[in-house]
Structure formats: C-alpha cells, structure tokens
C-alpha cells in the first residue's frame, strides 16, 4: 500500500476543507457572531496544521491501485468528518465531541440526522457550515480535489479508483475523456443547479441566507434546516421549488450532461430515470390514498405527499409534517422509499434505483432458471447486457447492506428504544436520509442515543455514503498486509 | 485534440498512453470488456465497449466531432472500414494500421481513395529500424530527419575509445567533420553539453550529422565497425517478411531459423537466395550447428518476447558483435537495453510516429512539426520544424536569437543543403530546422523555442 501517497491526498483534502470553512466564517463576522467566527478560524487552522505538512509530502511513487483508492477515500471521509466537527465543538453549539462528530458526519454524508432539538438559537455561521457540509459531501470532496490538480501520476487513469470509490453507482464512468474535465463538468452542473434553486427561492420572497441554506441542503440531498420545524413554516411555493429540486438532484448527473449536449432522446430513454419517475409517481399516489382525509383538500394532500416522497426517496429528509402520525401503510412505504433511494451518479443516497432494478431482474432470472434450467437468460439494461461481474456485485451489495442493517440494529437496540425506532434509525442512517420512525421520527432527533450508538451510526452513515466498501476494507486484515 | 482510437490491444494502449501524456482527449473503443476496464483503470481516457465499426458505437465515442481516428485493431480490413466510415461521419483525419505484407503496398496506393492521412505498420517500422542499424553497426540508434538527409545517431563511449576522456572543446579540431553533439545521457542524467563537457566511458552520445557524413564521423571518433554481412534471423515473425528484401538488396547473406515447416517453406519459396533452416532456434544445439557465433549480426524475431530476450543474452555472450532483439511488451525492456543487445519495439516506434503526426497536425498555422523522435531513452526529443514566415526569429543569427535554456538548434536544412549551424548562421523561412530539447517541453511551434518576452 502506498501510505505516503494516501497521506498526501488526505493532507490536501484537509487543506481544501479549511478553505471551505472561510465562507461561514465571513458570514459569522458580518453578523457579529465573533464566538462562532473564532471557532471557525480555529477549526480551519487545525485542519491546515494537520493537512499542510501531509500535503507537502512528495511520495517517491505516485501509483494508486484499487486497494489504495478505497483506503484513501474511506480515511479521507473519516478525517473530513472529524475536522468538520470542530466548528460545532469549538463554538459550543454542540457541547459533546461525539455529538459534534455525529452532526458533522451527518452533514458530509448528506444524511441530515441531527442530535439537536433546538437549532434556531445557534449562530448563523455555524448553521451555514452545517448546510455547507451537505453541499460539499453531496458531490464529493475528492472529486473537488481532482479539479484543482491531478492527484496521482500525470495523466494516468488511477484517479479513476478514487472517483469510483467516492461516487455512487454500479459502474461509474467519466463524462468526457479526461478526469479533470469530467470532475469540472460535474461541479459546474452542480453549482449551476444550486444557483438556479437559489434564484427561484429568492423569487418566492425568501431571504438570501435562507435561500442559500435551503439550496445547499437540497443540492446535496442532505436535509439540515436552519429551523426547528424543518421546512414546515415555509410557503407552499418554497416547498414546491424544493420538491422539484430534490427530485432533480436525485437524477444521475450524466443525464444532465446529455441534456446540456442536446441529446434529449438518449437522456429521456434512460431506463433508471424512467423507473425512478415511475416509483415517485406511484409513491405519491399511494401516500395520497393512504392519508386521505388527513389534509384539507386535494391540493394540500398532493403538495404534502409529493414533498415527503421527494424528500425521502432523494434521501434528503426535509419534513413539512410529522409523517410518523400517518397510517401504518404510509409509514412502511416511507421506509421502503428510504431503501430504494435516488439514482446512481446523483447526490442522493440509498441503494440506488439501478440496483433495485437489477435486483428485480436477477430475482426474475433465478425464478426462470428454477423451472427452466437450460434457458439462456441474460440481463439487459439500457440496451446493454449486464455482465456476471456486475450481477454478482449487485448481489453482494445487498447481502452486505442487509447484514450491516441487521448487525447495527442489534447493537443500537442496546439503548432500549423500540424495534421500530432502532431499526428505522439504522435504515435512515445507512441510506443517508435523516429522519426515521418513532424516537427518531420526523420531529424528533438522535440526541437520545448513547455515545456508543452515536459513533456506530456515524460510521454507518459514512459507510452508506461511500457505498460500503471504502469503510469495510478497514475491517479486513489483509488490506494492511503487503 | 479529440482523438478516437479503435482497438485497445498493445499497439492501441501504447498510442493512447503516449497521447494522454501529451494532453489530448482520448476515447478508446474495444470489443472486449476486460480491455475496456483495464484501459479506463490505467489511463486518463474514456474507454467504450463495442464494435469499432458500428455506427452507434462510433457516435457514442463522438467520432463525428473528433479530429482524428486511429484504427489499430489486429484486423486490417476492419481498420480500413473504420477509417472510411469515420471520414464519412465527419472525422477530421484517419490513420489505419495495415500490416498484411501481401497487400500493404496496394493500400499505400489507395491511401487517398480511403481518405487516410497516414498508414501505420509497426512491423514495417521495426524492419526499417533494424535494417538501418544493421547498415551502420557502430551506432545504437539512428533517427532520420529531412527525408533521410540528416540523422541523429546514438553512440556509446567504451573505455579506451577515442572519445574516452575527450573534451568537447576539441571536437571541431580533432573530429573535423560536420557533426554536432546534441545530448549526452550519463546514467540517469540527461545533459545538453557545452564546451566544458568531457566524455566519460558509459556515456550515450547523440550526434546530429548529415547522412553522408555519418560514416566519416564514426571513423573519426573510432566508433565505426564493419557493415554486417552474415546475418542470422531467429524466428519468422512478420517483420522478417519486410526485413529480408532490404537485407538482400544491400548484399547481405541471410540465414533464417524458423521451427514451423510451412512458414519455413514460405520463406524459402519467396526468397530463394537465403538459407532457411527449419529448426527450433531456441535450442543451443541448433544455434551451434548453424554457427551463430560466427555471424556479424543476429536478430531475434520470434513472437515471444521472453524467448527473444533470453536468446539475445546467450548470443551476445558468444561474442556476436551486433544483436537485435524484438520486444513487444515494453515493460521490462530497460533491464535489457545494453549496447550489445539492442531492443526494437514495433509498437513504440509506431506510437512515436503517431505522436509526431499529431503534433504536426495540432499546429497547422505556424511552423509545423515535420518529424519527431524521442532520444536519450525518452528523456529528450528531436523535432524537425518547417520554418514559415510566422517564425519570429527568422533572419537573426543564432548568437542573437534569444532561446529558452537547454534548447539546441542541431541542424538547418536549406534547399537540400545541410548546415550544422554555428553562431553566425540564421534560420530563414523555407528552411527546415532540427531542434533538440528535453522531454516535457512540449514544443508545438518553432516560436516555442524563443524566450518568452
């Protein structure tokens, strides 16, 4: 393993993180929150002190292979979360370090699960940092680094291992031949869409601060809000804009790239996109049916159900109502939507629509093979045959995914919360949603869990964001062997 | 430039990796998904799975908007089809790999009909390279410029040679022929030498001279060796097909050892003047029986790199003065690249040819690159430029020309006259000049050699 190279990359990531602490600091200074501003300066300084010497290392070999790529990304995310927790801790916004770490990891992984009951009284700069972590984590910190400079040997394709480990999806591919250009295009689309949302929110009369916070939180499909009641008190126009953008950010960014290139037909015929839209439409319909009579009029019912569907399937986790009070069917449906998640290559979490789609096709095939063993049964998607390697990677993904959910639920249940609460908390964390059911329901928070459970859930969130392997490799002893 | 490469096997990968280093946008198409995975993992380029001649795949790769397509799969017919079709879709230029000896000549004739900008034939390149080395055995490498009028040759300084301990300041007085020392490679160091430089044993010296002066220059420096007359070729791979006629024309005696009966008979039928031995060239017995040790030169040309390398080491140990080894996988060849054992890599030669073509195309406005050769183990480049009126330094004497550091004007070719320049010479529009620079400078235009104002 190329330890020196891994350390350099982590060093660079920390330096970038320090730079990103400056905008919230400026906001704090402008608003006269000197405590928060000094906490942010201190945190940035800590990140620079740790990161700068590491980034100065000149590794003799610059090769990165698949294993180094996974370890780099996993370690980088843990470090980013740790240093991202410092502003919360130093400013006293969140007194305990474990709580701060939970909040920071929840931010970067775009989960949006919080330990805080009272949010509005916190300094605005800290709340901005909270939403900013969503925005950074949504597209990925290492992807951002790739724009600045190639990480590995000049023009080699090894950055691909990093991109693949950080970006969600079954087969991450570049948009254009060169990695740097691909990363730049991704971020440009991301920034463009975020700005578009900001403008539309401003148009609806929201303040600049609120608009930017909501947009960043939506763009990363995170779900942190600057208000205690999440999105409930915002106007229905703002809620609609957010609904639409939550869905837009859950769509594979390569589709936005195709649209930019004018390839409408190719973009719209994408199988994953169609399935995603179908699931969203179906879920909204079923929720409206299940919650009939709870809202005044069909218009409100449609708005609430659309908002919550978009919020959960995009794994954002904004709330306008306490869906925990809904009928059992609707609550179950919400948990299902959490597991499905967004499209591959988006900023959303979850298992990803494409994996669910392939899973259903795999199930279909194995049933067919049971009664017709000799039939040649290939799995197609978007006109291409899915090879056996991808099929088995989907299988093992779900195997590991459910194993983790089972194990972590078991450990979290030590805290004595109900089955529903423990289980939904784990499902919510691994899929980077935020709210769950019961004790972690839409209007509650994760503050009641023990330190052990919080650390475990922190790790679960990062594991879920990086799609399992970059964190799991740390548990395999042979990774550390030559 | 946006370049699409069809075929990701060894030749395609070598070309793609060189071109990505040069900073081009590369898309590789291959029909094997393993190859696609390997390429997208190891190179900073896009790899697409599919048939290279299929329209949908070509469109996905953006052939219609590409500046150049390079078809280098193993199948000539497919390559030609790809190129013809890509041109039809609107691709800027097309390069096809054509290597079947039987009809390669015909394809050259049809080059314009197919719309090809260039035809690459790695095996022919390798054969030409080997032939040039066999012609003048004293040199390790020969790179030609100005349509063959000028060459840069690589010479190794052995202990006790004339050049051992020779100060470069004496070059003009003692060597007395028109030649210029461009680059010296000493261990891991690449030196662009000046008057204070003194040669040491083990130096690899790169000397630029008119083709007609090469032999005189080698005689003067004591590096000249008699031209090889008795040549043994072990293995009957494709380059042999091209190499044998060249050798026969120069009057050499050629002996081929080829284990495959049908192949051996094929050579015997086509080249009745040579002796073809049907035996396993990797057997020590056979080599002794055929008196390999008495040969002036031996080339190992089987299809297996390992066999070639081992055989060449053995033959060099017999004291054969010149041994050439064909190696396709370039990976470990540095280990074996010794003066007595020269490595010829068809795909590397072919990749260099394409790079020089691409650089020339990149710059169609100013002074274009005509030829490009990598010298000093790839640590320096020798580029031939066509000087146009766009060159800012035209008319200035070289002494007054503000050049970037470590850039050498090795040769000026004016209307067929080769000038090895001194401080009072000038570069004029219409000349071609050969510039030597360290690698990584990425010279695209002759103006790039000038000091930035």
In short:
With about 475 residues, chain A is mostly helical. Chain A is built from 21 helices and two strands.
Structure, described:
- The complex is a heterodimer of chains A (482) and B (453).
- With 482 residues, chain A is mostly helical.
- Chain A has 21 helices and 2 strands.
- In chain A, strand 1 and strand 2 form a beta hairpin.
- Chain A is globular and about 65 Å long.
- The model of chain A has no long low-confidence stretch (mean pLDDT 90).
- Chain B is an alpha/beta fold.
- Chain B has 4 domains: 119 residues, NAD(P)-binding Rossmann-like Domain (Rossmann fold, 3-Layer(aba) Sandwich); 84 residues, Alpha-Beta Plaits (2-Layer Sandwich); 91 residues, Rossmann fold (3-Layer(aba) Sandwich); 96 residues, Alpha-Beta Plaits, CATH 3.30.70.
- In chain B, 30% of the residues lie in helices and 25% in strands.
- Chain B is built from 14 helices and 22 strands.
- In chain B, helix 7 packs parallel to helix 10 and helix 7 crosses helix 14.
- Chain B is globular.
- Chains A and B meet through helix 8 of A and strand 2 and helix 2 of B.
Topology:
The complex is a heterodimer of chains A (482) and B (453).
Chain A (H helix, E strand, L loop, with lengths): L2 H18 L1 H9 L3 H23 L9 H25 L6 H12 L15 H16 L1 H8 L10 H8 L12 H25 L4 H12 L16 H14 L3 H8 L3 H5 L2 H20 L7 H16 L14 H13 L12 H19 L8 E2 L2 E2 L2 H25 L6 H12 L20 H15 L3 H4 L10
Helix pairs in contact in A: 1-3, 1-4, 2-3, 2-6, 3-4, 4-5, 4-8, 5-6, 5-20, 6-10, 7-9, 9-10, 9-11, 9-12, 10-11, 11-15, 14-15, 14-16, 18-19, 18-20, 19-20
Chain B lengths: L1 E5 L3 H12 L3 E6 L2 H10 L3 E4 L5 H6 L7 E4 L4 H14 L4 E4 L6 H6 L1 H4 L3 E3 L1 H14 L5 E5 L4 E7 L14 H4 L5 E7 L2 E3 L12 E7 L3 H8 L8 E5 L3 H12 L3 E5 L3 H10 L4 E3 L6 H6 L7 E4 L4 H13 L4 E5 L14 E4 L1 H17 L6 E7 L4 E7 L20 E8 L2 E3 L12 E7 L15
Parallel strand pairs in B: 1-2, 1-4, 2-3, 4-5, 5-6, 12-13, 12-15, 13-14, 15-16, 16-17
Antiparallel strand pairs in B: 7-8, 8-11, 9-10, 9-11, 18-19, 19-22, 20-21, 20-22
């Amino acid at each position: 393993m190329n330890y020196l190279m891994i350390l350099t990359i982590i060093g660079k990531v920390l330096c970038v993180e320090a730079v990103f602490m400056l905008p919230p600091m400026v906001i704090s200074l402008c608003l006269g929150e000197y405590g928060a501003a000094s906490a942010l300066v201190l945190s940035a300084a800590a990140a620079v002190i740790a990161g700068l010497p590491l980034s100065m290392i000149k590794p003799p070999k610059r090769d990165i292979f698949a294993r180094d790529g996974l370890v780099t990304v996993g370690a980088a995310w843990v470090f980013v979360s740790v240093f991202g927790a410092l502003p919360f801790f130093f400013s006293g916004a969140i007194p305990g370090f474990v709580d701060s770490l939970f909040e920071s990891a929840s931010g970067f992984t775009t989960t949006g699960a919080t330990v805080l009951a009272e949010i509005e009284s916190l300094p605005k700069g800290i709340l901005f940092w909270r939403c900013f972590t969503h925005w950074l984590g949504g597209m990925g910190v290492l992807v951002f680094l790739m724009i600045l400079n190639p990480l590995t040997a000049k023009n080699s394709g090894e950055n691909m291992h990093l991109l693949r480990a950080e970006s969600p999806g079954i087969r991450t591919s570049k948009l254009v031949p060169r990695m740097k250009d691909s990363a730049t295009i991704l971020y440009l689309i991301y920034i463009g869409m975020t700005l578009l949302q900001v403008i539309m929110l401003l148009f609806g009369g929201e303040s600049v601060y609120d608009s930017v916070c909501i947009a960043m939180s939506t763009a990363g499909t995170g779900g942190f809000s600057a208000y205690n009641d999440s999105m409930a008190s915002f106007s229905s126009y703002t809620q609609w804009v957010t609904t639409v953008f939550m869905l837009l950010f859950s769509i594979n960014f390569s589709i936005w790239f195709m649209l930019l290139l004018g390839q409408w037909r190719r973009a719209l015929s994408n199988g994953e996109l169609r399935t995603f839209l179908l699931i969203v439409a179906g879920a909204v319909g079923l929720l409206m049916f299940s919650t009939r009579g709870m809202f005044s009029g069909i218009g409100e019912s449609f708005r609430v159900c659309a908002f919550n569907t978009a919020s959960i399937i995009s794994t954002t986790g904004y709330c306008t109502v306490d869906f925990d009070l809904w009928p059992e069917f609707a609550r179950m449906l919400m948990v299902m939507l959490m597991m499905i998640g967004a499209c591959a290559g988006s900023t959303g979490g979850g298992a990803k629509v494409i994996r669910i789609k392939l899973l259903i096709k795999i199930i279909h095939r194995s049933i067919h093979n049971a009664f017709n063993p000799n039939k040649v049964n290939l799995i197609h998607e978007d006109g291409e045959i899915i090879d056996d390697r991808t099929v088995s990677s989907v299988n093992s993904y779900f195997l590991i995914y459910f194993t983790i959910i089972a194990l972590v639920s078991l450990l979290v249940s030590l805290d004595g919360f109900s089955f529903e609460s423990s289980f939904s908390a784990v499902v919510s964390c691994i899929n980077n949603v935020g709210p769950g059911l019961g004790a972690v329901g839409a209007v509650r928070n994760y503050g009641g869990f023990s330190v052990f459970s919080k650390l475990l859930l922190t790790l679960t969130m990062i594991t879920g964001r990086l799609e399992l392997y970059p964190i799991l490799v740390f548990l395999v002893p042979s990774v550390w062997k030559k | 430039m946006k370049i699409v490469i069809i075929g990701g096997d060894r030749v395609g990968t070598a070309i793609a990796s060189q071109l990505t280093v040069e900073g081009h946008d590369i898309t590789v198409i291959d029909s094997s998904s393993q190859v696609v995975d390997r390429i997208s993992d190891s190179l900073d380029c896009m790899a697409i799975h599919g048939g290279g001649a299929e329209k949908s795949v070509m469109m996905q790769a953006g052939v219609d908007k590409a500046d150049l397509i390079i078809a280098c799969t193993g199948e000539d017919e497919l390559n030609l089809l790809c190129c013809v079709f890509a041109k039809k879709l609107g691709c800027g230029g097309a390069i096809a790999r054509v290597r079947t000896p039987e009809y390669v000549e015909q394809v050259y004739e049809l080059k314009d009909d197919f719309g090809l900008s260039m035809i690459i034939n790695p095996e022919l390149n390798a054969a030409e390279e080997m032939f040039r080395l066999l012609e003048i055995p004293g040199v390790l490498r020969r790179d030609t410029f100005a349509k063959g009028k000028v060459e840069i040759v690589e010479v190794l300084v052995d202990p006790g040679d004339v050049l051992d301990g020779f100060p470069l300041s004496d070059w003009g007085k003692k060597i007395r022929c028109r030649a210029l020392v461009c680059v010296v490679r000493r261990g891991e160091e690449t030196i662009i030498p000046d008057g204070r430089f003194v040669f040491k044993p083990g130096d690899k010296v790169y000397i630029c001279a008119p083709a007609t002066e090469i032999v005189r220059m080698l005689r003067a420096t004591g590096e000249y060796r008699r031209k090889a007359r008795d040549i043994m070729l072990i293995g009957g791979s494709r380059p042999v097909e091209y190499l044998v006629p060249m050798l026969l024309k120069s009057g050499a005696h050629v002996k081929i050892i080829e284990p495959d009966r049908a192949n051996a008979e094929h050579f015997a039928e086509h080249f009745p003047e040579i002796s073809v031995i049907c035996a396993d060239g990797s057997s020590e017995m056979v080599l002794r029986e055929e008196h390999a040790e008495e040969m002036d030169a031996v080339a190992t040309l089987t299809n297996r790199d390992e066999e070639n390398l081992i055989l060449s080491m053995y033959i060099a140990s017999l004291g054969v003065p010149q041994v050439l080894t064909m190696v396709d996988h370039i990976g470990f060849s540095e280990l074996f690249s010794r003066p007595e054992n020269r490595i010829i890599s068809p795909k590397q030669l072919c990749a260099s040819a394409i790079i020089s073509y691409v650089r020339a195309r990149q710059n169609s406005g100013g002074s274009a690159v005509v030829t490009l050769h990598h010298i000093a183990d790839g640590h320096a480049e020798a580029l031939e430029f066509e000087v146009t009126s766009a060159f800012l330094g035209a008319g200035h004497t070289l002494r007054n020309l503000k050049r970037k550091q470590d850039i050498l004007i090795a040769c000026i070719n004016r209307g067929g006259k080769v000038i090895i320049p001194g401080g009072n010479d000038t570069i004029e529009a219409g000349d071609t000049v050969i510039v030597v620079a360290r690698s990584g400078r990425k010279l695209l235009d002759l103006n790039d050699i000038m000091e930035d104002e």
